[in-house]
Amino acid sequence: MKALKGSAILAAAAAVALFLAGCTNAPGADNTTPNATVPVAESPLLGTWQLTSFFGANGETVRAVAGSVPLVTFERTGKVAGSVGCNRFSADYTVSGTRLAIGPTVSTLMACPAPPGLMDQEQRVFELFPVTAGYTVAGDTLTLLDRTGNRIMTFDRAPATTNPPLAGPTWRLAGFADGVTARSALASPNATLIFSPDGRISGTTGCNDVSGAYATNGTALSIGPLAVTERACLDPAATAQEREVLAALGSAATYAIQGDRLDISDAAGSRTVEFVRVA
Predict the structure, then answer these.
(1) Model confidence over 218-269: pLDDT tens digits?
(2) Regions of the chain with pLDDT less than 50
(3) pLDDT at 180
(4) Smallest Cα–Cα separation from 219: which of 248, 245, 194, 253?
(5) Residue 72 per-residue DSSP state
(6) Which of 112, 177, 193, 223 is 20 to 30 A from 245 via CA?
(7) What is the spatial distance between Cα 216 and Cα 254, in angstroms, rounded to a whole number?
(8) 61-83, pLDDT tens digit by residue?
(9) 162 vs 132, 255, 256, 266, CA distance in Å?
(10) C-alpha atoms less than 13 angstroms from C-alpha of 66 in its C-beta half-sphere
(11) Domain residue ranges in the chain
């Protein structure tokens, strides 16, 4: 009887295992995250794409907000980054064939009241990234799919652009990367930079004045060495912000200007600091 009972238990366990295996392989089920078995450098995802539509919360197809420039860039480093109209974001992604996984997303925390619907668009796109399970590229159109193959976002390939010159405007700090975390700039004290046509940079971290040299070559950017005054920041948060911004400027390798936004990235392609044009 004991042996029979043991055999029955083993048979039941085997049946459960077969049932679970069948569930795992059921159509539409996707319980794994794809590994990057195909080098990212070979993926048609690479490049910058502009959002054209997305799957709305009520099941409708929603066109991208008019007047916004929602751009996302899939980088060779396995990062996807950009802005869907307001805040800068970044996330890791993995790709294997036509399978794609994105997330989690980190972003700055600015409020953008105009144009209407911009914040709703951003929130919805951030909700759709984690449920992305696949993609197709047909010509200059990228379509992201959920695990059942439903279309959840569409993009058009963004045309190649030439960066406008850095020199002239005053740029106000909007956000920076604190290690792996994207943070919004403090409302006060205000940090600003001015790039002069003669190759000089000047401004303030919010606590101290900075000045030095910079050089550009296409999208390449080098900054420094910088001279910094030695006033103490009374606010510990301002001290931390100053430290991260100075480190980001010192490690600058490339820059990109989109509308009124200036992004500076390091040699690994990670965006480290963001400014907005104020004058």
Answers:
(1) 788 899 889 999 998 889 999 999 999 999 998 888 888 888 889 898 877 7
(2) 1-39
(3) 60
(4) 253
(5) E
(6) 112
(7) 8
(8) 999 998 777 889 898 888 898 88
(9) 31, 11, 9, 19
(10) 0
(11) 40-157, 170-277
pLDDT at 40: 66
Which residues lie below 8 Å from residue 223, measured CB to CB, with a gap of 6+?
201, 212, 213, 214, 249, 250, 252
Could you tell me which of 123, 121, 234, 251 has the C-alpha nearest to residue 188?
Answer: 234
Separation of alpha carbons 42 and 80, rounded Å: 15
Whether cis (ω within 30° of 0) applies to the bond prior to 116 is no
Contact criterion met (CB below 8 Å) for 125 and 51: yes
Residue 163 one-letter amino acid: N
pLDDT of residue 158: 85
Provide the 8-state DSSP code for 33. P
User: Rounded to whole angstroms, what are the CA distances from 123 to 105, 128, 182, 194?
Assistant: 11, 9, 16, 32
- Cβ atoms of 88 and 107 within 8 Å: the answer is yes
| Spatial separation of the C-alpha atoms in residues 202 and 229, rounded to whole Å | 12
> What pLDDT score does 83 carry?
81
Buried b (16+ CB within 10 A) or exposed e, 170-203: ebbbbbbbeeeebbbbbeebebbbbbeeeeebeb
How much is the pTM?
Answer: 0.55
Assigned CATH topology for domain 170-277: Lipocalin (2.40.128)
pLDDT for 146 equals: 97
- In the structure encoding, which two tokens stand for residue 62, read together? 């929603």
Distance from C-alpha of 192 to C-alpha of 11, rounded to nearest angstrom: 71
- Kindly tell me the sign of the dihedral angle through the C-alpha atoms of 87, 92, 97, 99: negative
Q: Which DSSP letter does residue 82 get?
A: E
Domain 40-157 sits in CATH at 2.40.128.270
Q: What is the pLDDT of residue 2?
A: 39
